[in-house]
Amino acid sequence: AEEKSLKIMRVIWMIFALLLNILQILFADSPFKLNNKAGFCLVKHDSICQEIRWTTAGRLLVPGKNKCLGVEGDTVGSKVTFYDCDETSKYQKWECKNETLLALQGQELYVELKADSTAVLSRATGPNSQLTISGTHSGPCTRTHRELFTIEGNAAGRPCMFPFYYNNQWYSDCTSEERPWCAVETKYEHEMWGYCPTNTKDKWIRHPTNGAVYQLNTNSALTWWEAEKSCKQQSASLLSITDPNENELWNLRQPGGIHQGYKLWTGLTLDSENGWKWTNGSPFRYLNWDSGHPLTNAAFSCGLMDGALRYSWQSSKCNKKLGYICYSEGVLPSPTEGLDMGFCSTPWIPYNGHCFRLDRTGKSWSDAQQTCRKEGGDLASIRNTEDQSFVISQLGYAPTDELWIGLNDIKRERLFDWTDHSKVSFTSWEFGRPAAASDHEDCVLIRGESGNWADRDCKEKHGFVCMKTSASEPSKEEGQQDTGCKVVSIIFITENKYILKFYPLFYCFIYLRKVEKIRKTKQNKKTNKKKKQLNNSSDLVPEIHGIFETAEGKTWFEAQKYCRAIGGDLISFHSAAEQQLERQRYNNLWIGLSAPDQDTGYVWSDGSPVNFQHWQSGEPNNKNKVESCVEFYQRRWDQSGSWNDNQCEGYKGWICQIPTGVTPKSPPPPPTPDYNRTSDGWLEWNGNQYFFETKTMANEDARQSCKEKHGDLVTIDSEAERIFLWKQLHMLFLTVVYFAVLRWMDGSPVIFQMWDVDEPSFKNSDENCVVMRTFHGFWHDYNCGYEHKSICKRSGSPHVNATVAPTMPKNGSCQTGWKKMNYKKFLIIFDQNFVICFLVYLMSEMVSTPTTDLWIGFHNSYKEGFFWTDGRPKKYINLKFPVSNCCVISVFYLKQTLKCIFHFHFKTEPNLQDPSEPTTLDDYFKIINDSIKLVPQQMNWDAAQKNCEADGAKLASIRTEWTQAYIELLALNLNRPLWIGLNKTNNYFRYIEGWPMTSAYWGPREPRREGNCVYVDVDGKWKADNCNRNISSVCMKSTDTPPKDDTKDYPGICPEDPDQGTSLQRNFWKPYRGFCYLFFSDEKEWPDASTSCLAHGGVLASIADPHEQEFIQSNIGTFKDTHTSYWIGLFKTHKEWLWSDKTVMDYSNWQSGQPRDNPYGSISASDGSWSTGHRWHDKAYICKTAKGKM
């Protein structure tokens, strides 16, 4: 009867405690009335004391008025009254001092209630300023504001802003239209919103087997603590993962698998006593740490999952802003009555249906298990805090004991199970355990004063705890036994006193636990024979768990020397299991296999036998008979890795192995270069000097560049010279480079060749120049018009005052009907008063056809684009897309490939003398409604503009192709660049006359970050430069009037995102001015991101001006802890940067040193600057679409 009464009382106390906690939560942010000691009410209206409550940003909201308390200034006597709520106003923010004083935030100015029911700011702290909640002695700050974090929507999880103004109405709580939602700004001007948290989980992801539900919040960006609050506001917790199947769920659910780029908070947190644990109390029995994690720095005390690495776990600082996953268990089993103690024979001790005994005999884990099983039991399973408390308090456990229990991860690494196959529902690890850095500590023991758990090597000898099922009846030898006590949780002191009344003579044990934050652990795979080291790191690990490579790499011989210097050798593999390397990058690594003598075959560097091989398909092939060393080659599609033979002089990462127990020696010094460097940047080797030009140029330009440096394109006369050059290409990270061969351009004989397979091929009969590939150093023939980096060579340093003789183009006469332009010959065709100007070099004869289209020597028989058949550089391109493989010039159709048709007021002279210095043209040349005038005098941009204004004109605005073509012709004939009226303010290009840019003709890598004023160069391309540069200019008068942009209102609504089927979270467009934007967290290559935007009804975003830049930057800055950059709609074609939505590029925000040669553009999440990237880079991305009609 007493036991039954105790159970009933305990249930009553538990219900009471639960209700009390609920009431505390409900009333913590409830409204209240404030009075001073004289009974005056702070907020009074019509003689009725009004309720107030705390709300966002330290403000006090009057719900009945939907107004906030504020003052008109921060001076004594300022009246406290109602104002429209404004989260940015410092005069509406309050704080408590000395519990009952309400002060203006950051000021020593307190609210004082007057006898006339008014409230003012005062420095007095007397009774009239002592404010308490009506009916209590508590001050106003005993109530708080509970932030509600939004779900979905477009606000990235930001908390609700109360009150908010929407649709001509104030809301002090979530609006209940359809589904409860709120705004995150007081005014709904930017349409930022999200759903309010609820307990409904109908739309959550349901686990297929255990019924648990999950909420994926990839479009949110919250700190770990905020994410935990968000989950709790939905009666859930941050995700806990207790077995591999739960972890694998995310790989299976994600579209595209593991390449999503999500970094999501989980419920992992670091406790100062027990180490890593799950916040919802789930057992920490399964480990999936990423390589190198958890970090040992205690500041990295929160855990996340990285979707780019198969959702492995990483430790992180908790203040990063990331997405997160909420988790709620399925239907929990009904609680069962505690089992009777049962009966046990001596020396076993009964507890909760089992018998336990402690044995301090030192045994290995497996021997201890066998001992327990011989006695009809097994190593002990500890299923809850009560079991844990019983073991350390009732079995004679001492703080010095180290005792095996049944937990282990022998069956599956990093997944701990009990030997009796019972469910792992509780863990109590000591700090730093289980050890992520060791894969051979597979068995668990309890130790220390608190009996916390540690994983250890199963071969160690320790005492142990056995457990077996108790008998239902006592044996004859047992007789009457003390049945012991049941474990209880004591919540209140009154409950403690009540229990003592019933058990005054018995000792009962309870279990107390201190919960704080967590620190990280480390774990790697096990090894039995040897330890291995990666690259030049001095930290030894039991086996490969993460590969790090030096930036410069080493040759095979340098890597071998390095490994031997530290006491080991290059790694050797003798089974498939040994070469299972876990890694994140997929570069190639030297191993110890080589063939120093092709006749004897391959040998391991450490002298071990070659009893295992794992070659890549088709290898070894000893390509060009120069591949004698072996690399380990691992890719996403070849996770187990395979071998490939390669040239020993290539620079790669490497893997060392060191015998167990050997202390590594200091690494050797870096190898001494076998060359010297001259003062002007050339490398001196074996009597010659070499210069590696990183600028890409066609062969003709590359050779001219070499000659200007007193050299010529390199000649290669031996294998040693080829190896030297090839090694430098690796060190300098160059791509394919030009040099002279077939016949050396400097006239020297060809005494050495190293062609790649099937080379030279002389494709299309125009591959007359040669490049060296950096991948293997072999030679390929190419069309000379390809632009590559290059190598120059000279026999020695030139004299300090030496100058290069200028190369003058040859003068000569032209046949009848041909005219000379820019040292080239053109056939100018006259059609009445029009002159057709072909600004291309005609390379082949015209085909006799009745059409007016003309064949030119421009073709795209190569995948890389169009090239001239004679290999000349592509100085000018004017293609109309789409195009075929060969090109024609159309005489009469401007939009196809015609460049310019103009009235000229001068005649074409038949002589070929160089033109004299042009004089100022007094007359303007009219093009439609514009009149153009050339000003050959050279001056800076400002002076050029003033010169035009003095003539009643402005620097020219280029609004049509006709104007562009004419100014281009002026620049070409003058052979000088010309200022136009385009300049930049705040990275935004605008014509000085007010015309918007409707087209652009930027040159390669333009507009440059440092250039603010624009000129038309002699090639017709626009370039941005310093405005102080002195050059010629072009003035323009126009009868047209520039448009005025009076648009202030941007009507329209954003579309609903179409259901993508595989998406786990809905996407909501975010409006700004006349457009809508989607910010995607899943990472894709640029083409895939572009396709995804099309599927969502938009395109990759363009950025038209500083305002749009600021909007996008503020939104992606929220996710800077997750993504470093986002793809935007910038792409490069024919060396010109364009927007994918065909918007003209009149605004740019390039990083310093950008744009580079990569073809796609991205925006930094940290500072909003632009940079370039390769197609295969995976990034988050931004979509954009125009608003629809309302």
TrEMBL record:
Residues 209-327, 351-467, 548-657, 685-793, 927-1036, 1072-1184 form the C-type lectin domain. The keyword Membrane applies. Its main location: membrane. Residues 155-198 form the Fibronectin type-II domain. The keyword Transmembrane applies. The lineage of its organism: Eukaryota, Metazoa, Chordata, Craniata, Vertebrata. GO terms for cellular component: membrane. Gene3D superfamilies: 2.80.10.50, Fibronectin, type II, collagen-binding, Mannose-Binding Protein A, subunit A. This is Mannose receptor, C type 1b. The chain crosses the membrane at residues 12-28.
